[in-house]
Design goal:
Elements lengths: L2 H10 L1 H4 L11 H9 L6 E5 L3 H6 L17 E2 L4 H6 L2 H15 L3 E6 L1 H5 L4 H12 L2 E5 L8 H16 L12 E7 L10 H7 L2 E7 L4 H5 L6 E4 L2 H15 L3 E3 L5 H15 L3 H23 L8 E5 L4 H11 L3 E6 L5 H11 L5 E2 L4 H10 L4 E4 L4 H7 L3 E3 L10 H20 L11 H5 L2 E2 L6 H9 L5 E6 L2 H15 L6 E2 L4 H6 L2 H15 L3 E6 L1 H6 L3 H7 L6 E6 L7 H17 L10 E6 L5 H13 L3 E4 L23 H4 L7 E5 L4 H11 L3 E4 L5 H15 L5 H21 L4 E6 H13 L6 E5 L13 E3 L11 E4 L3 H7 L4 E3 L17 H18 L3
Parallel strand pairs: 1-2, 1-3, 3-4, 5-6, 5-7, 7-8, 9-10, 9-12, 10-11, 12-13, 15-16, 15-17, 17-18, 19-20, 19-21, 21-22, 23-24, 23-26, 24-25, 26-27
Antiparallel strand pairs: 2-14
């Protein structure tokens, strides 16, 4: 079935096929296909495109598997500009071969992305050739982001399984009680609470699609007696087609909640064998587990009579209503944006024809519903966590990013405990007021990317400029995935919108779509600045964005175009380019008069909001006024209210004074290019500080401030310096001779390496994300421009982002999470690791880890 047929089927016959109610959706087809197929953990999932698509999706879901580990790794062909010009089918073939040679996977799934789909790469041909020459199952997944929403990508993945996998293998044996699970992804290990119960009842899971599944299991799924559809919205097409091809009936069930789990067991049993003996056995299993659940719930207070607002999608949109009702919790509002027609029918069956269903699930609407309906808890996905946190609302995450299993009887007990705990926690608090070598290039495939796309950096930069509308011009997956990535890192609302291009826009022209997006933002939101960030899709396509913005006349609004094709450069460079374009727009017509005591601060993206606050505080202590561009201290957790525009950071009126500063202070050498731009236009000199974590660098910084201001160094910094020196002396015995590996963005690596060098423990292995001439400034025995697959060896500590947690566990070494993204640690963005105070804390933090492993 073609993409067009799938889309037409889904949106025209919603009641039957249960696809989306509209073209919309939260992400793109590429992401949807990955969601379905990536849990096949003994197969490599190779993304053919620029590295951004892999970086944004790598380890972003809570799928658990005992059948392999490739679902926790990221594989990219890392297309660059020359590949787009001359073609990259050879690169793709070599990447497949490398994956086979390194890992010997059961299969390789090759995913088309916006760029490779647009440039016309013959992915099917390469996969066929690779399969023949390498004696390997190589399967093309043609789901570039621009063809449609996530739900369509789910269906495309289902068609891939039907066309290439199901029906190609033989099981080692079959029983009359074999079932397939379809649309179940073993999030947080859900199946650990479901499969044993099935086994008690005499029911065997032959194949999972695709949670905790091996590739071979899916090849012989056609031998099952029954298909059990868990998420019909995702893969109903697989169940329907298997019924047509193999005469396998199917039932739709849910495993969430006591009632639903018991109902699922009964429905499956009736479809397999409705004999009295078998049904009595199943009823005995149900009775035993229900009694155990009842006993467990008696110990949990704060549940009965509580009121919940629910917002999720697919099977959970109605099955969680049943689960909450099992707990005596009243569901007072349900968001339906991600629900199908059939989902809504099931909701009304549970809640009545007057069920409180709401299409508007914007942050403001969810807050309003919680208040109007007097909700006690918000039950939603992880992307709404910041919403609850800002308002002091009890919250649990029930979507794919969660880390707790909620399926089956034991999962239901987990759900009850989680709700009880969060209500108890917030019940004690008053809600706040509303308001240098390039190893992957030699290898031919990027494995576990460290590098992020330019566009992510550009989006991040504009979060530090107040009242700005940030627009990604590309397929909607770029917007969605970038927003999720930054939200998970900062635990803050990220202002980001997109032009959401689809096939017709790519074919017929997308400038009009962009113009309409900008006009709509202007009319509804009235920003002071609109920043348009172009992606690999629109850059390869050749959209004349600069020309379009030059023609638009929006009163009181500045328009900035930042070209960030994801096949060029890295996050740091995208961030610096965004700042450079902003500087150019703000100072080109500014007055050249110098204001005494005014300095510019250009701070790189490697520092936390807490670091930004500390640096500004140090500058103010010398009675200097600073213009910080961008000012990411606005992401420190203090935001109130919700807006599609950025809130906090540098005001544009303040930015117009950049030309009046006495000097520009640059923190992080990647920010030298915007400093040069200010100098070229305004003749303002600048000073670059490669870091502010080593004693030497901090001394130079405060002495520079003293020189500029003419004021002595304040007493508190003299005291803090003494504390840092004392900390270094106390800890040095634990640092000496230690083998340390660090992998992060180049500026961050330079800063860290300078501190470790002072401590007598120069980095043994440093891995930089993204090719940069600045990598040569890292102080290390070996510096490599590469990916996280290079992290091998025996180290006393690994310092890298959250993706390194599994790597550290596999290598049996401690980890300090630093860099980007850090999403497996609380409070990271408020950490201060610059200045005397921050450096002392970092010395002690690393030293404590080394001390615990000291031999």
């Amino acid at each position: 079935m073609t993409v067009e047929e799938l889309m037409a089927d889904g949106c025209q016959i919603d009641e039957q096929h249960k696809v989306c109610k509209s073209r919309g959706g939260e992400s793109c087809a590429f992401d949807g296909a990955m969601i379905v197929l990536q849990p096949i953990a003994d197969a490599v999932h190779l993304v053919h495109g620029p590295v951004g698509c892999t970086s944004n999706t790598w380890e972003g879901r809570g799928t658990v598997s005992s059948k392999g580990h490739f679902h926790r790794m990221g594989f990219s062909t890392n297309m660059k500009e020359l590949d787009i010009v001359f073609g990259s089918e050879g690169r793709l073939f070599n990447a497949i071969k490398t994956c086979r040679d390194l890992f010997n996977p059961a299969a390789v799934f090759v995913y088309a992305t916006c760029v490779s789909g647009l440039t016309g790469e013959d992915i099917e041909g390469v996969c066929k050739k690779a399969a023949e020459e390498l004696s390997l199952r190589v399967i093309p997944v043609l789901s570039p982001g621009f063809v449609g929403p996530k739900n369509l990508g789910n269906r495309i993945a289902g068609e891939v399984l039907l066309d290439y996998v199901i029906g190609t293998g033989q099981p080692p044996g079959v029983t009359p009680y074999d079932i397939n699970l379809i649309g179940e992804y073993n999030i947080a290990g859900d199946m650990e609470f479901v499969e044993p119960v099935f086994a008690e009842a005499g029911i065997r899971i032959l194949s999972g699609m695709t949670g905790n599944a091996s590739f071979d299991e899916i090849t012989y799924a056609h031998w099952a007696r029954l298909n059990v559809v868990v998420c019909s919205r995702a893969l109903i097409n697989v169940a329907v087609e298997m019924k047509r091809r193999y005469k396998i009936p199917y039932v739709e069930v849910s495993f969430y909640g006591k009632t639903a789990m018991s109902g699922a067991l009964r429905a499956i049993a009736l479809s397999l064998d409705n004999s009295q003996q078998f049904m009595e056995k199943v009823e005995e299993v149900i009775s035993n587990h229900e009694k155990r659940v009842t006993t467990a719930l008696e110990a949990l207070p704060l549940l009965a009579g509580k009121r919940a607002v629910l917002y999720t999608g697919g099977v959970k949109s109605w099955s969680l209503i049943s689960a909450l009702m099992d707990l005596g919790i009243e569901v007072v509002a349900v968001g339906t944006k991600k629900s199908t027609y059939e989902d809504e029918v099931k909701m009304r069956a549970l809640l009545g024809q007057d069920a409180p269903l709401y299409e508007d699930v914007s942050p403001k609407s969810l807050i309003r519903l919680m208040r109007e309906k007097q909700g006690d808890i918000l039950v939603a996905g992880g992307r709404n966590f910041y919403l609850a946190a800002k308002e002091g609302l009890p919250f649990i995450d029930v979507n794919q990013e969660r880390h707790t299993a909620y399926a089956g009887y034991d999962g239901f007990i987990n759900l009850a405990r989680a709700i009880s705990n969060t209500i108890a926690f917030y019940g004690k608090r008053t809600p706040p007021p509303f308001s240098v070598t390039n190893e992957p290039a030699a290898r031919g495939v990027v494995i576990n990317p460290l590098e992020h796309a330019m566009g992510v950096g550009a989006v991040l930069a504009f979060q530090g400029i107040d009242n700005t509308a940030v627009v990604i011009h590309g397929a909607q997956g770029c917007t969605f995935l970038t927003k999720v990535l930054l939200t998970n890192h900062f635990k803050e609302p990220i202002a980001l919108q997109g032009s959401k291009l689809f096939t017709e826009d790519v074919v017929l022209g997308s400038e009009q779509r962009l113009a309409e997006t900008i006009t709509d933002i202007y009319e509804k939101q009235r920003p002071r600045l609109i920043a348009v960030i172009t992606t690999g899709l629109t850059e390869v396509k050749g959209d004349d964005v600069a020309g379009l913005l030059g023609q638009m006349r929006l009163e009181g609004v500045s328009l900035i175009h930042v070209p960030t094709p994801d096949y060029l450069s890295s996050l740091e460079d995208g961030y610096a380019l965004a700042v450079e374009k902003t500087v150019e727009a703000l100072v080109k017509n500014a007055a050249r008069t110098t204001k005494k005591g005014l300095v510019n601060l250009l701070i790189g993206p490697h520092l936390t909001p807490g670091d930004f606050i500390e640096i500004k505080s140090i500058v103010r202590a010398f009675n200097l006024e600073a213009i910080t561009l961008p000012d990411l201290s606005s992401l420190d957790g203090s935001r109130r209210g919700f807006s599609p525009l950025t809130s906090g950071g540098m005001a544009l009126d303040e930015g117009s004074q950049l030309a009046a500063a006495e000097i520009t202070l640059v923190i992080g050498s990647s920010m030298e290019s915007p400093a040069k731009k200010i100098k070229d236009i305004c003749a303002t000199e600048y000073v670059v500080f490669e870091g502010l974590s080593s004693l030497e660098d901090i001394d130079r910084f405060v002495n520079t401030l003293s020189l500029i201001s003419g004021n002595p160094i304040p007493t508190k910094y003299i005291t803090q310096r003494a504390i840092l020196v004392d900390a270094q002396r106390d800890a040095h015995c634990y640092y000496g001779g230690k083998a340390i590996c660090a992998a992060m963005e180049t500026d961050h690596l330079i800063q860290l390496s300078r501190l470790l060098y002072e401590m007598g423990a120069p980095l043994k292995l440093a891995i930089c994300g993204g090719k940069s001439e600045r990598s040569g400034r890292v102080i290390a025995e070996q510096t490599v421009v590469g990916d996280m697959y290079l992290i091998t060896g025996d180290f006393d500590i690994l310092i890298t982002n959250s993706h390194g947690k599994a790597i550290a566990k596999a290598l049996n070494m401690p980890i300090l999470q630093m860099g980007f993204p850090v999403h497996k640690q609380l409070g990271y963005t408020s950490k201060v690791r610059v200045g005397y105070r921050g450096a002392a804390d970092l010395v002690n933090e690393i030293g404590t880890i080394l001390m615990e492993g000291h031999r």
